[in-house]
Amino acid sequence: MIDTEHLGVKIFEYIDALAELSEHPDHLTRCSLTREHKQANAMVEQWMQTAGMTTHTDAIGNIIGRYAGQTEASDESAKAPALLLGSHLDTVRNGGRFDGMLGVITPLVCIGALNAHGIRLPFAVEVVGFCDEEGVRFPSTLFGSRAIAGTLNSDTLDQCDENGISIANALRDFGLDPDNLKSAQRAVTDFLGFVEIHIEQGPVLETQNIPVGVVSAISGAARYQVSVTGQAGHAGTVPMSLRQDALTGAAECLLAIENVCSDHEGLVATVGEIKASPGATNVIPGHVEFSIDIRSSEDSIRQMAEREIANIFAQIAIDRKLDIQPVKTYEAGSVDCDKQLTRLLADSIESFGYPVQTMPSGAGHDAMALAELTRIAMLFVRCKGGISHHPDESITVQDAHAVADVLLRFLQRFDPAALTAG
Ligand code: GLV
Ligand code: MN
Ligand code: MN
Fold first, then answer.
1. How many domains does the chain have?
2. What is the pLDDT of residues 14-30, one digit of tens each?
3. What pTM did the predictor assign?
4. Nearest atom, ligand 1, residue 295 CA
C-alpha cells in the first residue's frame, strides 16, 4: 500500500522549480529549444533518474524516462512495449506553470512513489516531456510528439522563428543533430498506449465540483500565416481613394474571420499575432503579416470555414488591390480518445467516490499527435476559474494529490493483455 498523502506537495515542489526556468525575469515564458528549455529537460531528467528511470533526450529534444517492467528489470536484454505518459515542457509567453508541466510531473512523481516502495509493474512505463506543444516560437506546433509518431516532415525543420533561426539550427544550438530526426520516431510496437494528464483549461470541473475528469475527444485545428501586401506611402499626401493600405485590408480580413466563425457552434478562430510594416505613424502600412488559429471538433465544419475565409480574402484582395497570401503552416484532425483506456481511467476516478465527468477538449494536446501511433486517453484536472495561458493559472495541492491517486490506481489496474484491438 502506497502512502500518497505527500504526492500533491511533491508535485507542487517540482512544478514551482520548473517555473523558475523562464526566458523572462518577471513572468513564465519558456519556448521550445531555448536555453531555459534545455535547463528544464536537465532538471526533469535528474528527477526521472531519482525516480528510478533510465533517461535519454531524443533527436527532437523530448526528454524521456523509462521505468522498466517486472520482466525487463530482471532481464537486461528484454524491451517490452511501454505505457507512455507525459505532456509538454514549453509554455506560451507569460503563461501558467501547470499547462503541460502537470502532465509530466504527475507521472514522474507517481513512478517515484512506486520505485520508493520497490514496486515494478507487469509492463514498462515511459514518461516524456515533449519539446513543443504550444507552437509559440515557430509557426508549426506539436513537433516533439509528431517526431515520435513519425508524422513530422523534415521540411518543417526549415521553419524559422522571428529572429530567422530555423528549427534545424535551434536543434543544433540545443546540442542535437537535425539530420537524426528519424531516430526520434518510435514503432507502433513500442507502446501500449499514451495517457496525458492536463489541466482542464476551462470551467466545467470547477462548476461540477469534481477534481478530475476524462476527455472524450480533442478538437482538430489549423494554423495559417497570412501576408497582405499593398503599397507603403506618405500618410499626408496619398488620397484615401488611391491607397493600397495593407493594414486596413487585414482589418477587413480579421472581421471576416470572426464573422464566419461566429456562424457555427463549436467553431473558433483567433488572430493572435499581427505585424504591420514599415510601422511608422506617418507611413501607410505596405505590408502586414498575421496568424490564424482555427479549430472545431468537426473537421468538415473547420475545413468549410477555411474555404469560406479564403474566398472572402480573395474578394478583399480584388476590392482593395492587395496581394493576400494565406499559407497553412499546420493542420491536425480531431481525435477520439480510446474507449478502453478511458473506461479504466473513469473506473479509477469512480473508485475514489468522484462522479465521472466526460468532456471534449477544445485545446490542442500532444495526445493528438500520438493518436497516429497508439491508443490515447486524457485526464483533465480542475483549474481555478478555468483560467489558462495566463500567470493566474492554478490548481490546488489537493487536486494534484487526487490526480496522482487516480493515476496510480489506473497503473495498478492496467492490464495490457486485456486490451482488445481497435
Ligand atoms: C495549446 O495550448 C493549444 O491548444 O494551442
Ligand atoms: Mn498544454
Ligand atoms: Mn497550452
1. 2
2. 999 999 999 999 999 99
3. 0.89
4. 4
